[in-house]
């Protein structure tokens, strides 16, 4: 299906440790439930607020669906200098207080970004406070075993993402 690439890989995501307002965030936080994850930064003018709004819409579309379709949203900031734990808490709360914001330095981000093929480049060579960050816009679906299940490529639409998510979850009921 256009816009979604399903992944059949029995390997879990690589070992990583990031930090956020709720403390350390590791592979174990993916276990037991479906998770949508994407990469960006809080001062992003378009891609990130659009992605978080999309995830809020998907949650609303699922409504009172069975608990098996419940999911968590993990926003991974690739701008740890500016995206403090407090700022991540406030930013996530503006969309949905249940959304999880985490970050880490390049060494901490590397296991995930390299494994998933996530691109990011901070444009901070002339100004360390006001700069943009170029980054991938894919949304990654992680299954309850901590394995990559699908990648949703842009442009993403809430109705299509919701339908694909339901279909993927139904195909893997024991996860």
Task: Give the structure's gist in a few sentences.
This protein is an alpha+beta fold and 175 residues long.
Fraction in beta strands: 25-35%
Average pLDDT across residues?
92
Low-confidence stretches: none
Helix content: 25-40%
Shape: globular
User: Strands of the largest sheet, in order across it?
Assistant: 1-10-9-4-5-6
Treating each run of at least 4 consecutive H or I residues as one helix, how many helices? 4
* Total separate domains: 1
CATH fold-level assignment: Glutaredoxin
Let me know the CATH homologous superfamily: Glutaredoxin
* Termini Cα gap: 22 Å
Main sheet summary: 6 strands, mixed
* Category from helices, strands and their pairing: alpha+beta
The total strand number stands at 10
User: At the first level of CATH, what is the class?
Assistant: Alpha Beta
What is the level-2 CATH architecture name?
3-Layer(aba) Sandwich
Order of helices and strands: EEEEHEHEHEEEEH
Radius of gyration: 15 Å
Describe this structure in words.
The protein has 175 residues and is α+β, with helices and mostly antiparallel strands. It has helices at 47-62, 85-95, 106-116, 158-171, and strands spanning 4-6, 17-20, 23-26, 34-40, 71-77, 100-103, 120-122, 133-135, 139-142, 148-152. The chain has four helices and ten strands; from the N terminus they run E-E-E-E-H-E-H-E-H-E-E-E-E-H. Helix 1 crosses helix 4 (158-171). It is globular and about 50 Å long. The mean pLDDT is 92.
């Amino acid at each position: 299906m256009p816009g979604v690439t399903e992944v059949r890989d029995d390997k879990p995501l690589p070992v990583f440790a990031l930090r956020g307002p709720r403390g350390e965030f590791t592979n174990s936080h993916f276990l037991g439930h479906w998770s949508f994850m994407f990469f960006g930064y809080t001062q992003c003018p378009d891609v990130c607020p659009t992605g978080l709004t999309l995830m809020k819409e998907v949650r609303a579309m699922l409504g009172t669906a069975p608990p098996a379709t419940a999911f968590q949203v993990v926003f991974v900031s690739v701008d740890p200098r500016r995206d403090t734990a407090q700022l991540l808490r406030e930013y996530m709360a503006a969309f949905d207080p249940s959304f999880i914001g985490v970050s880490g330095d390049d060494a901490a981000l590397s296991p995930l970004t390299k494994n998933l093929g996530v691109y990011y480049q901070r444009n901070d060579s002339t100004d360390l406070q006001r700069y943009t960050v170029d980054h991938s816009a894919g949304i990654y679906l992680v299954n309850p075993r901590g394995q990559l299940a699908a990648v949703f490529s842009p442009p993403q639409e809430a109705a299509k993402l919701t339908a694909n998510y339901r279909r993927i979850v139904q195909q893997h009921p024991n996860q």
